[in-house]
Specification:
Layout (H helix, E strand, L loop, with lengths): L4 H10 L9 E4 L3 E4 L3 H6 L2 H7 L7 E4 L9 H16 L4 E3 L6 H7 L8 E4 L13 E4 L2 H10 L2 E4 L2 E8 L8 H12 L7 E6 L8 H9 L8 E3 L4 H9 L20 E6 L6 E3 L7 E3 L10 E5 H4 L2 H11 L9 E5 L3 H10 L1 H7 L3 E2 L20 E4 L15 E4 L2 H10 L10
Parallel strand pairs: 2-3, 2-5, 3-4, 5-6, 8-9, 8-11, 9-10, 14-15, 14-17, 15-16, 17-18
Antiparallel strand pairs: 1-7, 12-13
Length: about 425
């Protein structure tokens, strides 16, 4: 029987020849990810940890990133608890404040391998689908049980096949692509489904663009959002020091059965926005030209990679952002920051009036470093625009690509980046 990607990976992990959508399987994930919420997770199993310890020091990946550095005594105390836990049990994959956002750190360190299963107590764990990995979010209680047992259960999802053709035009990015897809399918259009990306258009997307798309799979309700492994994937893993013999890629059979099939011509994608307060409230930038903004956020786990900073730097070089706009620059990791500094992008962004923030999540979730005031509007490259997401229920968040954010920061209002590029 022909299998989809999800069916193949879950069957292999469960020791079966085949599985079908709706079937429950028990699997042993390669890794379980957590971040600042690690303190709450280990707090659920304090007695069990004292008695049994963690099942393996290689299983748990911990990245302190959500409030980094700590913005309150409570957060600082939680961070201290996490550091003590990592030291006590000899965790091999602990990344302290400043290393970056968990999803970028996991990829950079070769911890999301093709054909493996990675779960995490963060909904955007689906990002690693760009690496050909079955990666998905779980809740804190599941994560706690995993630390003790090394296993969890998953329901085999149905799969949606997305066929990409063409190539993105100049001034249009992967964020425009994925927002357009979410606008077409809806915020729950792929609820508990696997989304596979196929077609000749896939080869036109670099790995960082694929990470942007996979990152937002959960915003259409998807369990996973996965790309096939190719030379770009293999090169990134080799750069991370991963030996190709340590993983076994997987992909769907040509005659696999799908719940539905969607076709998208990349050449027809235009700059778009996700208007408040839902990610599927997608409109072309052209319909909102001149909409005033007060803050512009460039970065996060969705669009804080080197190519994202490069796009913005190219548009802002030698210019100055509008005096009424605060431009926040949030690199996804320390290595991205270092590379952006070496390339001169950081200098360009700062000279344009940008404010450089430490690698982490910060303003994306309204934790600190960029909370909105009532009545303010932020144009953001993040992945969510829910009411109150950036710390103020009376503020508005509009999602856009790095190019649109940069162009709009210059204008003080929503602008079409194609007019600058």
């Amino acid at each position: 029987m022909a299998l989809t990607f999800a069916e193949r990976v879950l069957a292999r992990a469960a020791g079966k020849q085949r599985v079908v959508p709706g079937e429950i399987v028990v699997v042993h994930p390669a890794h379980v990810l957590s971040h600042d919420n690690t303190a709450a997770i280990i707090g659920k199993i304090t007695d069990e940890l004292d008695r049994y310890g963690v099942v393996s020091p290689d299983l748990h990946v911990v990245v302190l990133d959500h409030v980094a550095p700590a913005a309150s005594e409570k957060t600082a105390t939680n961070h201290r608890k996490v550091r003590a836990y990592a030291e006590r049990f000899g965790l091999r994959h602990f990344f302290d404040v400043g290393e970056g956002i968990c999803h970028q750190v996991v990829v950079e360190n070769g911890l999301a391998l093709p054909g493996t299963i990675v779960v995490g107590s963060d909904s955007h764990t689906c990002s690693y689908g760009a690496m050909g990995c079955f990666s998905t979010g779980i809740d804190r209680t599941e994560a706690a049980a995993l630390l003790l047992t090394g296993r969890t259960w998953l329901r085999v999802p149905h799969t949606v096949k997305v066929v990409l053709t063409g190539e993105l035009p100049a001034g249009v990015g992967a964020k425009d692509l994925v927002l357009s897809l979410i606008g077409q399918l809806g915020a729950d259009g792929a609820s508990y489904q696997a989304v596979e990306f196929h077609g000749p258009g896939v080869a036109t997307l670099d790995l960082e663009q694929r990470l942007t798309v996979s990152n937002m799979g959960v915003e259409m309700g998807a369990k996973i959002a996965v790309f096939p492994v190719d030379e770009l994937t293999r090169a990134a893993l080799a750069e991370a020091g991963v030996d190709e013999s340590s993983w076994e890629e997987a992909w769907a059979d040509e005659d696999a059965s799908y719940l539905s099939e969607v076709h998208l011509d990349l050449a027809q994608v235009v700059p778009v926005l996700a208007m408040p307060h839902t990610v599927d409230n997608v409109v072309p930038v052209s319909e909102q030209l001149g909409l005033e903004i007060h803050q512009a956020l460039l970065g996060t786990c969705t669009n804080g990679r080197l190519s994202d900073l490069a796009v913005a730097a190219d548009l802002l070089r030698g210019k100055r952002v509008h005096p009424g706009v605060r431009l926040l620059v949030l690199p996804a990791s320390r290595s991205v920051l270092r590379a952006a500094m070496d390339a001169g992008y950081v200098q360009d962004l700062i000279d344009a009036g940008g404010v450089l923030l430490p690698p982490g999540c910060g303003p994306c979730l309204g934790a600190h470093q960029g909370v909105l005031a009532p009545g303010e509007r932020c144009l953001s490259t993040a992945n969510r625009n829910f009411k109150g997401r950036m710390g103020c229920r009376e503020g508005e968040i509009v999602l856009a690509s790095p190019a649109t954010v940069a162009a709009s920061a210059l204008a003080g209002a929503v602008a079409d980046p194609r007019e600058l590029s």
